[in-house]
Design goal:
Length: 534
């Protein structure tokens, strides 16, 4: 065997070895055997249409996010005005959440206030200014259209990222999460069959705040709507032994002394009585802030508020340093773990609503797999038989390349962590036909050269050299189209694109490199003047 054949054999041997190494783990019997201990953990992941699971369509409440941002902007304006010596009263958003209203207490400060808005709050536009009988000015502000559009897009993008982080923590293999038009998010969770828990985990806003409890407030009056200035009425949740919840009224200072933005970690733990709680760790800046807050409120109760409900309100005995805190509330183990997940992943920038919910049964997926396998086998057998009948020995060489090609496709799906979907199976079946297409072009070219009187070796050399460029051009354009499908398509379309790309790349290797090696090896063992029949 010549040196040229040896290095090609080494390349083919290496590719075949890697192909088998990544193909075998996807075979259940092999994975469970002794050999499975030495194989990679990568296996082919099945999509929602094959494995079953949950399909959700969420709507992001962008208007609520903009209203919250507008309210926060009002507090920022009040704080900045205070630093500049300007009195601003009652900044609050309107009922529809689209405008911010505030009162400028001193008429002579109007120019200074307008300058401050232009300098520090250029994303706001002044819609209207009215004076009242006391000489004060009532301002009505809103976000500029450009800023509102940017914030809406950012809100949906952040929601997608937060939901993906939560699902990754939840442990769902190969989730498909993508942004759609009209502020919607599509989620597919293969293999997950507990929709209620998934919805609670995904949809929890998880806005964490620390607020001081006003123990001097009269609860009876507070429940009638008579609250001291700067206070708000909330509920303190208490979990009963039977799993139900009891909610009691509690009065809090409206302004949060700290939020959950500075949380670096959250874990479900157990105390010495084996009750579950959530332990929090703060970032360095958060730790300093928490130390300051607890130092300023010793002997007061600090409420831990999640999504507007108080989970616990312990009394601060002393200044707490070290950057750690805990949330107690008689949680079940599952509740503590899920709460830790959403706190680690971060709060959603806006509430989300479930617009569509579907559960796909695994039996439908199993039936699809069986039909797909049958289709692939029948199509493969027909192609193999046709190639042998029409091209003889050369057809058998193409059939060997076809089987090698299928192994490489399966290995590629497993090695790259791709998800196999029903359209993906269709892509594999399509690849069976396309895999021999390149060999058909080559064989027909070799036939032409043989008719012109060239020897077998010369005909093979010319046939491969002249057909290779045509094959590359055709396959590269198909790969480009498949990449566009993958980039802009939804889950099933992406599954088809993945198998199509893998199939084309594998078929080019097997059709051009592998079959050429087999021809050269065969001809090297025959006399130089021996013919060849194709």
């Amino acid at each position: 065997m010549s040196g040229n054949l040896r290095w090609r054999l080494a390349v083919i041997g290496l590719v075949a070895f890697l192909g088998l190494i990544y193909t075998l783990p996807s075979l259940g019997t092999v994975k469970q055997s002794f050999l499975g201990k030495f194989l990679p953990d990568d296996v082919i992941s099945l999509g929602l249409d094959l494995k079953g699971g949950i399909h959700l369509t969420l709507g992001v409440d962008v208007d609520k996010a903009l209203a919250n941002s507008l309210s926060q902007m009002g507090r920022d304006i009040r704080d900045q005005a205070k630093e500049d010596g300007i009195a601003v009263l009652r900044p609050q958003s309107t009922a529809d959440g689209k405008h911010l209203e505030l009162i400028l207490a001193s008429a002579d400060k109007r120019q200074a206030f307008d300058d401050m808005l232009a300098k520090h709050f250029s994303v706001l536009t002044v819609n209207n200014v009215e004076s009242d009988k006391d000489g004060r000015y009532l301002y009505k502000l809103s976000f500029t259209p450009r800023y509102a559009a940017e914030q809406a897009k950012l809100t949906v993008d952040q929601a997608v990222k937060t939901i993906r982080n939560r699902i990754d923590e939840f442990g769902v293999a190969e989730p498909d999460i993508r942004k759609q038009s009209d502020n919607r998010i599509q989620i597919q969770l293969p293999g997950l069959h507990d929709p209620e828990r998934a919805i609670k985990l995904i949809g929890k806003t998880a806005h964490l705040e620390f607020k001081v409890v006003d123990d001097n407030a009269d609860l009876d009056k507070a429940q009638k709507g008579l609250l001291p200035p700067g206070d708000e009425l909330s509920v303190l949740r208490h979990r009963n032994p039977d799993g139900s919840y009891l909610e009691r009224p509690i009065v809090l200072r409206a302004d949060a002394v700290m939020t959950g933005e500075n949380i670096s970690d959250a874990r479900a733990n157990f105390d010495n009585t084996n009750r579950a709680y959530v332990g929090l760790s703060f970032t360095p800046s958060g730790a300093r802030q928490f130390e300051r807050v607890t130092g300023e409120n010793v002997k007061k109760r600090l409420a831990i508020v999640l999504d507007g409900k108080v989970y616990s309100a312990p009394t601060i005995q002393e200044k707490i340093s070290g950057g750690r805190a805990s949330i107690t509330g008689n949680f079940s183990t599952e509740e503590a773990r899920d709460l830790a997940i959403v706190l680690r992943a971060g709060a959603l920038p806006a509430p989300v609503n479930i617009l569509e919910q579907r559960s796909v049964g695994p039996s439908l997926g199993q039936e699809s797999i069986q039909k797909g396998v049958y289709s692939a086998l029948i199509g493969g057998i027909i192609v193999i038989a046709f190639m042998v009948v029409y091209y003889g020995v050369a057809g058998a060489v193409a059939d060997m390349a076809l089987l090698f090609n299928l192994v490489l496709i399966v290995a590629g799906l497993a090695g790259f962590g791709a998800t196999l979907t029903l359209p993906g199976i269709a892509g594999i079946i399509l690849t069976i036909g396309m895999a021999v297409d390149a060999n058909v072009i080559i064989f027909e070219r070799i036939r032409e050269e043989l008719r012109l009187g060239l020897s077998a070796r010369s005909a093979v050399d010319v046939g491969y050299s002249r057909a290779t460029l045509t094959i590359l051009d055709a396959n590269v354009t198909t790969v480009i189209a498949a990449m566009v499908l993958y980039q802009f398509g939804t889950g099933p379309i992406r599954g088809f694109a993945v198998t199509l790309i893998l199939g084309i790349v594998a078929s080019m290797f097997t059709a051009i490199f592998f079959t050429r090696f087999l021809f050269d090896l065969w001809l090297s063992r025959r006399p130089a003047d021996a013919g060849i029949r194709i």
